[in-house]
Amino acid sequence: MALIDDYRKAGQDIYDRLHLSSYPVAIKYIRDIGEIPDGFLRPASLGQKASLCQAFTYARRMALSIAMTADDNFCTPATVMHRWVDIPFEVLMESQLHQKWHRNAEAERKRLDHGKKMIGEANLSGLSQYAGFICCPLSDARFEPDTVLIFGNSENITHIIHALTYEGENFPTSSFEGFAESCLKGGLIPFITGVPQIVIPGMGDRAFSGIYDYEIAIGVPGKLVFDVSANLFLTGGPLNIGQPVKTLLPQSLTENITPGFKFMQEKIEEYKKRHQLK
Q1: DSSP 179
Q2: Cα torsion for 124, 135, 147, 233, to the nearest 10°?
Q3: Which of 23, 74, 102, 253 could form a disulfide linkage to 107, CB 3.0–4.6 angstroms apart?
Q4: pTM for the model
Q5: pLDDT tens across 101-144, in order?
Q6: 194-206: pLDDT as tens digits
Q7: Count of CA atoms in the C-beta half-sphere (13 A) of 156
Q8: What's the pLDDT tens digit per position in 57-84?
Q9: Which residue in 209, 218, 210, 217 sits closest to 54, CA to CA?
Q10: How far is CA 15 from CA 71, 97, 228, in A?
Q11: Are the C-beta atoms of residues 151 and 60 closer than 8 Å to each other?
């Protein structure tokens, strides 16, 4: 059985070896605010609110330990989608119509059905048992994470996918809609389904949480973080592309590759001949 210290070591190992620009984030879903450990910040306790994606940014860039519930979250659609409040999905759909994200009510209904399908209809009823989550850098975690959310560039995420699937399983399965990417696909869905999810930061991520333009992410069910750490850079053996990535450099190039290079080489040859004739 993995100890919490094992998770911390795996988080530090992944951070160091992939040269990540932010920490892997440990996420645990809680049933009651009484589960929030000492030292975790709640925006509401400071008279503030934040979004779920902002909580992840505080954890991964500032190494803060954050707790989020419905009372802490200003992104109310995410609160309803997580089922932290008992509000019908029809009301959620109506709220999204005010945002004009999609063409009409039918398009918004289809989008909501798509979101339910990603979570899994059978899993929806079980979500109401949770009231929020806690998150912090995995390397500092004092709890066993339900999900580990890792941001990086596309090369970093490719290495993580290779490590996850090195044993021929744990293939990420993702669907994209440009909304609720880090909170649902980066956190909730890997926990509920046990399947890793690729995250392309969505509308809220980009508007609220300071995502860099090159960043993507992957949400990994907690226990699979050990596969990532153990299998990192094993794909291809000595042919592994490594980190920094070892790209193949073009070979057998000559001055003929550009008109300017060719012109200059011809002039060099002319000057050589003149010098030899003197």
Answers
A1: S
A2: 160
A3: 102
A4: 0.89
A5: 888 989 888 988 888 888 988 898 899 999 999 999 999 999 99
A6: 999 999 999 999 9
A7: 23
A8: 999 999 999 999 999 999 999 999 999 9
A9: 209
A10: 32, 40, 11
A11: yes
